């Protein structure tokens, strides 16, 4: 039908919503650890607009060239450069096809 679906992950983003998960005093204890970890992992998005990198990148791609079994992650390098990293999802094609067929059945109901 010409419809495409892709999975996008914004990465770990510290926002006002994140701060509501735990009491403020715990965040004050955890933040130094979070910043140390952010230097060694790419999924901690430091730039606020960096979380949209994968969504914008995906929008600019031709859907027929994208892999349906890949999740596209917004990432940030240690120097703050934002980029997209595709990672294979832990789903084989047979399982994905069964899931798709089940969705079609549900749609008919």
TrEMBL record:
Recorded GO CC terms: endoplasmic reticulum membrane
Keyword Glycoprotein: no
Key words of the record: Membrane, Transmembrane, Transmembrane helix
Transmembrane segments: 24-45
BP terms from Gene Ontology: cholesterol biosynthetic process
Domain of life of the native organism: Eukaryota
GO molecular function, one term: 5-alpha-androstane-3-beta,17-beta-diol dehydrogenase (NADP+) activity
Keyword field contains Electron transport: no
Descriptive protein name: DHB7 reductase
Species this chain originates from: Leptocoma aspasia
Lineage, opening ranks: Eukaryota, Metazoa, Chordata, Craniata, Vertebrata
């Amino acid at each position: 039908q010409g419809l495409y679906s892709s999975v996008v992950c914004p990465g770990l983003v510290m926002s006002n919503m994140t701060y509501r998960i735990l009491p403020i005093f715990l965040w004050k204890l955890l933040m130094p650890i979070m910043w140390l970890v952010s230097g060694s992992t790419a999924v901690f998005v430091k730039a606020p607009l960096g979380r949209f990198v994968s969504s914008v990148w995906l929008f600019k791609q031709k859907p027929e060239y994208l892999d349906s079994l890949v999740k596209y992650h917004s990432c940030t390098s240690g120097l703050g450069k934002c980029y997209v990293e595709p990672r294979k999802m832990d789903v084989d094609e047979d399982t994905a096809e069964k899931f798709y067929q089940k969705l079609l059945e549900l749609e008919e109901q």
